[in-house]
Amino acid sequence: MLDIALIRTLAAIRGESNSYSPISRLPPEILSKIFYHVPRAVEATPQIWPTSVMNSVDIVPTTLVCRRWYNVAINSTFLWNSIADDLSPRLRLQRSRGTPLNLLLFGKDHKVLREILTSGQPIRELHLDCRRLVDSTFEVASAPELEALTLSYWEYHNRRTIFQEHTPRLQQLTLTRSLIPINSFPSLRRLCLCNTISPLLSLEDLLSCISASPNLEDLIFSAIKIRVGTAEDASSKTHLARLRTLTIKSFPLPQLDVFLSRLSFNPTVATSVMTETERLVIPSTHLAFNFEQLSLWYWSNEARAVMSGPLTAIYTESDDVSDMWHFDLLHKFPLHHIRTLWVESCSSFGWQSIFPLLPAMTALSTLVIYVEHSICILELFMQISDHVRPLCPSLSTLHLLVNEDGINNGASIHQFVAFRAQVGYPLEEVVVETTYMLDEEGIRDSLAPYVRHIDIRSVEELSMMSLPPICTTELHRRWPSWTKDWRSL
């Protein structure tokens, strides 16, 4: 009895002592917000967008510190509304007390999911691997609070709808190796389709899914194959009035052309197209838009182009191009609007393929060259376009980007600047931007007779083409910031 009394007395003394520590003076609301940052985030597969699922096991140690921390943690329902680990689901259901749940489950957990659905407790996020899932699981209840849904390996046998066709608040849907439910998703803002499975998805089913979600803002298609009919009606288009980003990756070219011909969206939509096709793909909706900057990267059978304007941009690349990689640029894109051309990389055996683009760039005023990989491009500009004028007659500024390797072929720069002056179209300015110590006096002596202004700048990082804000943000895993490691994207 004395031992028990002693233990209780010591506990009371420690509790009283703890009450005077600075951290014990924090209000419970502040302490619970601190606890919110303790659990690690749990990643869904695939994780395209960030999730709200947390590893609740991480919060358990905080409940063992003292009675006050225990009470605060246990009564913070948002700390227990994630089910994604080995901690008892029923314990989380009890402690979350009706707070909308964030679930990361596998098909083997279908009993847990069914129990949650039938209990009526709301679900905010559900990320589910559907292998071994019982077909009828999605039929037992609706999901009126569901905002984000990821389904992997979902196949239907009887019904093609989910949650009794009642998901009025669903804003984010990711389907990977799954078929498409035929629900109408009126609130859907983000849709991602990855790695379709057989039978091939029909174009009409895909367009029906998109048109049933009129509020779509972000679309991702990655490694999907569609079945295109022999008599598709190209005049029938699905218009996406609120779309802001479109991401396409690993989409076969013939189907991609048909698919894009059936979509209609505003030219301000930022677009990323990454394929393994014979040419760079540019959506027809953007062909009349006023892009003022163009960046080119060409090496062996790989090509990349970035077109940028004040409001939006296009990123297009292919890893398996042919000699006609620039077909869309040459025959569809308004090259006469381009005022600044960035040549990021151009191999010595591929620079001639850029030549067909240059005569159309009649408004080009600034040429930016990454000297280490692209100095050979200057030879193209020393050709006469119409027997009188040089290519790009409006060119007034040459901007050279020089890294620590320095300038290995300064003679070609001198020759180009002298050529422009000799044919009566002299440059107004040469800018040399460098991270390396250069012979500034030698550069000035070489170019001064031919150009009015020479600006040599020492910088820590070389400039990159300016992009609108939507392209400099990591929106999702298929859309990294375009300015992140720009030259190795």
UniProtKB/TrEMBL annotation:
Pfam families: F-box-like (PF12937). SUPFAM superfamilies: F-box domain, RNI-like. InterPro entries: F-box-like_dom_sf (IPR036047), F-box_dom (IPR001810), LRR_dom_sf (IPR032675). Transmembrane segments: none annotated. Residues 23-83 form the F-box domain. PANTHER family: F-BOX AND LEUCINE-RICH REPEAT PROTEIN 6 (PTHR38926:SF5), F-BOX DOMAIN CONTAINING PROTEIN, EXPRESSED (PTHR38926). This is F-box domain-containing protein. It comes from Obba rivulosa. The lineage of its organism: Eukaryota, Fungi, Dikarya, Basidiomycota, Agaricomycotina.
